[in-house]
Amino acid sequence: MNHPRTLGELRKSTFSEQRLRTRKVKDELRENLIAKLRSSENIFPGIVGYDDTVVPQLVNAILSRHNFILLGLRGQAKSRILRALTGLLDAELPFIAGCEIHDNPYAPICKRCRELVAREGDATPIAYLSPDDRYVEKLATPDVTIADLIGDVDPIKAARGGHDLSSELTVHYGLLPRANRGIFAVNELPDLAGKIQVGLFNIMQEGDVQIKGYPLRLPLDVALVFTANPEDYTARGKIVTPLKDRIGSEIRTHYPGTLEEGISITQQEAWARRDGLELHIPKYVSEVVERIAFLAREDKKIDKRSGVSQRLPISVLENVVSNAERRALRNHEKMIVPRIGDVYSALPSITGKLELEYEGEMRGADTVARELIRTAVAKTYDIYFKGLDMQQVVQWFELGGEIRLADTAGAQEVLEGVRNIQGLTEKLAPLGIKAKDRVELVVSAAEFVLEGLHAHRRIGRSEERLFTAEKQAKRVEKPFEPADQPFRNRRPYN
Hints:
Elements: H1 7-11, H2 17-22, H3 25-38, H4 54-63, E1 68-71, H5 78-84, E2 93-96, H6 111-120, E3 126-129, E4 135-139, H7 146-149, E5 151-153, H8 155-161, E6 171-173, H9 175-178, E7 182-187, H10 194-205, E8 208-211, E9 214-217, E10 222-228, H11 232-235, H12 241-245, E11 249-252, H13 259-269, E12 278-279, H14 283-298, H15 311-330, E13 335-336, H16 340-345, H17 348-351, H18 358-363, H19 365-385, H20 391-398, E14 402-404, H21 411-418, H22 439-455, E15 459-461, E16 466-469, E17 487-488
Parallel strand pairs: 1-10, 1-11, 4-7, 7-10, 12-13
Antiparallel strand pairs: 2-3, 5-6, 8-9, 14-16, 14-17, 15-16
């Protein structure tokens, strides 16, 4: 499609002059939202778990043409929601070519464009903005200045153009004017200094500002959206009352309400697919990973005010897959299948995301993380095996059986050991695994059963991943030599 490239061509095109003159950004968002609602389109693709809570409130705010703020703990998709608003903008929007603030061809507000239109008339060049071009985002920090947001006098412009410093032509525009005819997002709003917030709502509401003592009228057309963490209101700052009063809607976000929603988000966001090898992530592994985050959000040793980000299970799953990939590459296997042992190997992706209370600090981040994994394994194990008789497996260990399941051991090597555990491979049916299935799947399922029994304290396991009878778990084991097999049968102790 050939778009009009001059103001004269634009006047003769389908871009209505009356519509471009009177239609504001909030009207545009509203109209496009209404169209999506009527066609039953997904308004915010990729946003999971908010269909009955956050999304209806967002829809109401946009239909009301409100500036709004998303209030919630870290890792609740606040920034992602704001960026998804570009899906409600028109595919293309004409503006005067070369204008820093994307002036409307029919109603320019900057002096440069007014003079250009007066001089060039219908020959005024026209360019076009995509939805992404119309979204400007700023992370609020205490060192942000009014010049960053609004603008400042540029002496170089004045010198090169021979302008007086009081001339509007010497202004270097800040982020907010450059978001004209688009969306301006501020993340972590309370971190902005109070005087900067005052300047923000003044230009937002009144459309005027003073730069270096010179008054400047900028009737901007901007949809303003913000995010904030509830902890910020007391810990680092607050939203000044006049600005808060001008924010039309305050929408509270939340963490996934169900395990299934959490798993869906994690699988959507985690980088799990790897080149070269087939990947299969067992459902029970995904459930254990996700349940770690759910348990952490309820744990008294972890600071609830800070929250436990959804990035935790995402990072854990990526580390779990990477550890399984490392093992597959070392053992020349063709399929990557994570095991529960890989979850313990992902401790670095857990400990850095937990803000601990005093009790947690005393116990240590590693200890707290290991307890979370063990509890997650126990709860997941109960979903599949609660009420199933595992006494035959437990008895094998009570009679002196031992097996070491190193996270680096190949699947075929481990399978030789788990086959010696009486009844174990026959107990995998609840996981949808049969003894004749691929070796990697059988080994992963068998290890999950053993980890579940250990989590319920029916068998013991050392930090070196040596599974033994529970009564022997506290006995100090002599480390195996490298030449030792990953398992061994032992005679009963007297």
